[in-house]
Amino acid sequence: AVIKAQELPVDFDPMASDLRSLVTDFLEKNGLRETSKTLQAESRGRALAADCDLARALASGGPTSVFDQPRPAGALSEETEVVAYNPAKGDPHGAAAMPLYQTATFAQPSATEFGAYDYTRSGNPTRDAAQKILAQLDGGCAAYCYSTGMAAIMAVTRFAKAGQEIILSDDSYGGTYRLLAQVASNQGITTKYVAMDGPEGPSRLLAAMTPRTALVMVESPTNPMMRICDLRALARVAHSRGQNQIVGSGKPRGALLSVDNTLMTGLLIKPLELGADLCVTSCTKFACGHSDTMAGVVAAKDPEVAKHLYFIQNAEGTGLAPFDCWLLLRGLKTMPLRLERGQANALKVARMLEAHPRVQEVYYAGLEGSKDKAMHDAQAKGAGVVVCFRTGSYATSTAVASACANTGLFKITVSFGSVNSLISLPGDMSHASIPDEVKNEREFPADIIRLSIGIESASDLINVLSTALHNSPPVAAGPSQAKL
Prior knowledge:
The protein is of the alpha/beta class. The chain has helices spanning 2-6, 16-29, 33-60, 78-84, 125-138, 149-157, 174-182, 201-208, 231-240, 265-268, 303-316, 322-355, 373-377, 394-406, 436-441, 458-471; strands at residues 142-146, 165-169, 190-194, 213-219, 256-260, 278-282, 296-300, 361-363, 386-390, 410-412, 421-424, 448-452.
């Protein structure tokens, strides 16, 4: 016990001080007072060394969190920039937070002169404040906020026109599938579904592309199978073939690459820096973070692409309402903290699931040995908070989800990215709009469970999950228990 205690990471583990006290009490009660003193001295020395390492990191501008990266001396980290962002600098009353401009229209200087704003559909100061920080977070020249994540995805599809085609990852959000299969198809746009994950993904995309390909849409990790796509390679392929003339001067150019970055956010992956043209995020999830607001954003790195995004936002009237923008701005302030805590919890949960006898497979890029982990690590700063796993039985998975929900710690919802932990069966919920025959073709497992890990105590979440798994009905021997 003493040897193990001396190896504990006492300077970081929140439980370490309690464990240290138990060990030292045991030693003193057994007449080993000198050993106890030595252990306490070493623990204090280890903690002091950690403080010194942190001070040196701060002084040198080095990384101090999972999101931070080496940067020039004096430059602020992304977390600090998000928190310190103050769009209300010009407020005459010195507002500490961005004021809410809850107005539909703005009075003009005269009948022939227009001010900076005239009608909230076309522009609003509160919306502009949100769009500016989101563009900065995604590394784009501009970003535009929409009423929902789906409205943002719809704006992206406007870069394809009748007679052209969109190529979509075959493991994508069910709402995206529904939009392309039932809405875009009615506008004369064809959709192809291609597995773009893994080392072979770019070559499969290249084989599927034609001169009519205007847009390539992908996620990484995919939802819910958590497959990894090489965004750099996919961008090169998309730009090398296809044709998109809807932006700019109309001169021929390759297809545009759009990346749905909802699972990662700009804190963990920056698709625009990896070659993507468009970055879509459902801000309903991490940016807002409290399951109380719907919002979407599209960021672009090319001014001509951004110009078309604004035109769509204004023409279709899908801009995010001022109050929702205000809530979004408030949520962004704590997003780095929430995401960092949730990600740390997710790794602990994933490791427990990986070792549990009732779990057949775990999908989480943070696990050592996860498929295409090196590819993910090369383009991301972390694995996020979404963990998916299979039990081998639809009945077992249903029982586990219900048992977790009954404790009150997990809520059964179709979303993710909240402060609370969430649980769902994607086949019946977020991906229910995908026909069963399509799910069968893509080998979509009916028993897959998706977890969105929140900021609660990881030990509480692990206790609930392990208990639910232990008490769930065992998987019957014989043919597959998949519902489909």
